[in-house]
Amino acid sequence: MAGATLSRPPRSGQGAPRGRRHAPAWPVLALGALAVVTAAGFVAYPTYPNYDSYASLVWARDVLHGSAPAFDAYRAPTQHPLAIAFAALLSLAGDGADRLLVGATLAAFVALVAGLYRLATVAFAPLVGAVAAVLLCTRFDFPFLALRAYVDIPSLALVVWAAALEAARPRRGGPVLALLLAAGLLRPEAWILSGVYLLWCAPATGWPRRLRQAALVAAAPLAWAAVDLAVTGDPLFSLTHTSGLAEELGRRQEASAIPGSTLTFLRGLDKTPVVAAGVLGIGLAATLFRRRARVPLALLVVGLATFALVGVSGLSVIFRYLLVPALMLMVFAAVAVAGWTLLPRARRARRAWALAAGLIVLYGIAFTVTHVTPRRFAAELRFRGDSHAALVALLRDPAVRAARRCGPVSLPNHKLVPEVRFVLDAGPADVVARSDRTQRARIRRGVAIYATERTAFLRYGFSPDPVRVALPLPGFERVATRRFFGAYARC
C-alpha cells in the first residue's frame, strides 16, 4: 500500500512534482560527455602509474606470490591498505594491471566530478554545481593525478560523495561513515574527517548507534595498523616511516612556514583567480547562505587544520594534503560566480551580482589564456607514456636480459625502482638504487640503467651524488639504448 501511494500518478489537473518536472537533463549529458572525453584521453595518452601506485602493484604481487611486501625498502612510500588490495585484484590481469589501474583512477575522477557537482548542487544550486565541476575539470593538476593513478583521486571521490550525502540529509550517519572508512584506507587524513563527523552525529544518536559509528571510525586506522603489524612487526610503522622519509627528502617545514606553504600550494592547485573568488564566495556564503554552506565550510576548515597538523607533526608537507581544501575553494568560487541564482528574481542585488560574476568569469578566462599552456600538459603526458615504453623496450632487450644474470638492475635513485620491479616481475633485491649506500658492493656487477635524454635525466637521472649515480661505473659497457635510457652491463 505504501508503494502504491508513493507511485500514484498525480491527480487530474496537477503536474508532476516540481523537482521532477524541472529536473534538468544536461547534468547527465555533461557527465556522459566527460566520461567519453576521459576514455578518449586514456586511449590517446597511454600514461602509467606514479611511484606510489607502482609500489602498491609490486607489493600486491609480492602478496600473491606468498612473500611479504617490502614496506621498509629504500625510500619506499607509505603503504595504503585498500590500494594494495585493489592492486592485488588487478594483478590477476598480469602485465596490463598498471594500465587498468590508470583506467580505474580515471573512472574515479569522473565520479569525483559528479560528486563535487552533487555536493555544490545540494548545498547551493545546480548552476553552482556546474561551475564547480567545470573548475575541477580545468584545474590540470587533478586530471593529471588521475592519469598517473594517484590514490588521492579515489579517496577524494569518496570524501566528496560522503559530504554530498551529509548535505542532502544532515547526520545521516552510517553511509557517510562507510564512505569515509574506505577513504581512510587510502589516505589517513580521512580519519580526522571521520572523527569530527562522529562528534557531529553524537548528540542526535543513542548509545547503541554511537558505538556502531565509533566502530566504523576506528576500523580504518586499526586496519592500517594491523597491516603494518603483520608485515613489519610494528603497528605504527607507516607513521614513523613517513616521518623519517619526510626528513630524509627534505619535506619537513617549520610551523612558521606552514601558512605560506598553504597559500602557495592552494594557488598552485586552484590558480590565483579561483582562490580569490573562493575567498569572496566564503564571505558571501557565510553571510547569505550560512546553513547551506555548513558542509563545504566544515570540509575546508578541517582540511586546513589537517594540513597544519601534518606540518607540525613532522610529516611531509606536500600539496596533496591540501586537495580537499582546494576542492572546497572551487565550490565557494562557484558560489561567487553563480550564487546569485539563489536570490529572488525581483531583487536588484541579483542582477548586480550576476553582472559582477560575469566580470569574474571574464577575468578568469583572460588569466587562463595568458598563464596556462595546454601544450605543456599534453607534452608531459606524452613523456610519461613514451618514457615508460622506452624503459620497457630496454629492459626486454636480449642483451639486458642476459646481463641480469651477473647482478641486480641498478637505477640512479629510487624513483623508477617500483616501475622496473613491476615490468621485470622482480623482487626487492633484484632492482636497487645506486643512491642507496647499502648497495655499493652489489652494484659493481649487473645491469646499470642511465637516463640519456634531458627530460628523463631531470626526472630520474641524478641524486645528491650525481657523479656516482648518473655516470657509468668503471668496468661497465653499453649494451643497449633506447630514446630516453641506456643500459650498461658488467659481469
Q: Please, could you describe this protein's structure?
A:
The protein has 491 residues and is mainly alpha-helical. 64% of the residues lie in helices and 5% in strands. It contains 23 helices and five strands. It has a five-stranded mixed sheet with strand order 2-1-3-5-4. A hairpin with a 3-residue loop joins strand 4 (477-481) and strand 5.
Topology overview:
Blueprint: H1 2-6, H2 18-21, H3 26-44, H4 51-64, H5 81-90, H6 97-123, H7 126-138, H8 141-147, H9 152-168, H10 174-184, H11 189-201, H12 207-232, H13 237-248, H14 258-270, H15 272-288, H16 294-312, H17 323-338, H18 348-371, H19 374-395, H20 398-403, E1 409-411, H21 417-424, E2 431-433, E3 446-451, H22 454-460, H23 466-470, E4 477-481, E5 485-490
Helix pairs in contact: 3-6, 4-5, 4-21, 6-7, 6-8, 6-9, 7-17, 9-10, 9-16, 10-11, 10-12, 11-12, 11-16, 14-15, 15-17, 16-17
Low-confidence stretches are: 1-20
State the separation between the terminal residues, measured CA to CA. 82 Å
Secondary-structure element order, as H and E? HHHHHHHHHHHHHHHHHHHHEHEEHHEE
Q: Please work out how many helical segments DSSP would assign.
A: 23
Strand arrangement, largest sheet? 2-1-3-5-4
* Approximate shape: globular
**Strand portion:** under 5%
Task: Find the count of extended strands (DSSP E, 2+ residues).
Answer: 5
The oligomeric state is: single chain
- Helical percent range? 55-70%
Largest sheet: 5 strands, mixed
- Rg on CA atoms, Å: 25 Å
Summarize model confidence as the mean pLDDT: 89
Sheet/helix structural class: mainly alpha
